[in-house]
Specification:
Layout (H helix, E strand, L loop, with lengths): L3 E5 L9 E7 L6 E2 L4 E6 L4 E5 L4 E6 L6 E3 L3 E6 L6 H7 L5 H10 L1 H18 L9 H8 L13 H7 L3 H10 L17 H10 L5 H7 L1 H8 L13 H14 L4 E9 L1 H11 L11 H15 L5 E4 L4 E4 L5 E3 L1 E3 L2 E3 L2 E2 L7 H16 L5 H4 L4 E4 L19 E5 L3 E7 L2 E15 L5 H16 L2 H6 L1
Parallel strand pairs: 12-16, 16-17
Antiparallel strand pairs: 1-8, 2-4, 2-7, 3-6, 4-5, 6-8, 9-19, 10-11, 12-15, 13-14, 17-19, 18-19
Helix pairs in contact: 6-7, 12-15
Amino acid sequence: MTELKQFRLPDVGEGLTEADIVAWHVKPGDQVEVNQVIVEIETAKAVVELPSPWDGTVARLLVEEGQTVDVGTPIIAVDVSAVAGENISAERSVVPAPATAQAAPADQPQTGQAESAQAAPERQAVLVGYGVKASSTTRRARKVPAGPAEVPPEPGPLATVRALAKPPVRRLAKDLGIDLGLLAGSGPDGAITRDDVQRAASATTPRSEPEAEQNGARTASLAALPGPAGEERIPIRGVRKHMAAAMVSSAFTAPHVTEFLQVDVTETMAAVRRVRDLPEYADVRVSPLLFVARALLVAVRRHPMVNSSWDDGAQEIVVKHYVNLGIAVAADRGLLVPNVKNAGELSLPELARSLQDLAETARAGKATPADLAGGTITITNVGVFGVDAGTPILTPGEAAILAFGQVRDAPWVVDGQLAVRSACTLSLSFDHRIIDGELGSAVLRDVGSMLEDPVRMLAWN
């Protein structure tokens, strides 16, 4: 007899409520084993590979790639019955409809109890978040009516429209003001496609004047290329969605102040070259960012208030006597800010390796939610983009962020004589509720002084 188990999207950490399906690694009919990776999901913080909690045969994929799914939603059905080979294939061909599969736990309580008793140890070994939250059952039961993206059993035009249009298509229709209930889909099984929505939009009246004014330059583009064909719409989800929300929250919550300082970093650049030749650094990339990071860590030790956060609920300033140093990384999925835990306790070689490993992991899309959580102060290296300075926005929950501009040759007065020196611009943005101008200036001045003369890092450490 066929025994189907539905794997529900788990909370992989940090209390996340939804995730995007990036790529399925299996298809219906594939044999899967416990701990075999079956899908990649993108949360607001990282791309995570989810393993199978069971041995069995994939019966159906309940959600599609690119779809945004709430935690607790069934995403795959696996046939775990003892029958193997051709018998399983025959039974899979008559897999019950999603609505029946979702009702199975209520119809077969004993099977659910046995599954819980037998699978609990495996779930704990497989992935954090598999069934560890007692409240998840209630939340999942509430989400059952949404179901997978197929035609639901209830009649009615609204339900049919939602089932026959993918989430990106529904978002596009909403943006363009198109009623999906009035469209006839040209996709498989009558599904409404992006082209259907765009054709409907081109057949309607042009946008109103207020909308055209708000879109600014994009309206000019539409004048040259009339209709939706002149636009590209990129779904906002995953890391980019989280980043956008975080930046808006930070910009409109913390009063930002940014100060700038031009620094002669000739001695630091010479120190970078000398350190590269040391055997302790043979297997690690040494860059000026390493010295900027060390200088900021020393400045934090001298001025602890800069490494703090504002607790609005408790009306307290939380001064953190540990430093989780965030490094802004431009990855393909958007801006990530992983952090080096307890960076102030690391030696210079350890710090160099940690910075390199963190950046490589983030760029490869392998940063975990733990890597991205808990930062206390951040550095953004805008110099790698050929930029001299910037006004960086604070990472939410932090009080300061340091921008390191590009190092370039510049005329500089040394001992009363004009000389060509290596110079850069430092920019420090800080939360003016916590850090006043005097403290912010002192921190920036200290970092600049240590980069002008790296010996100060030893003297002040």
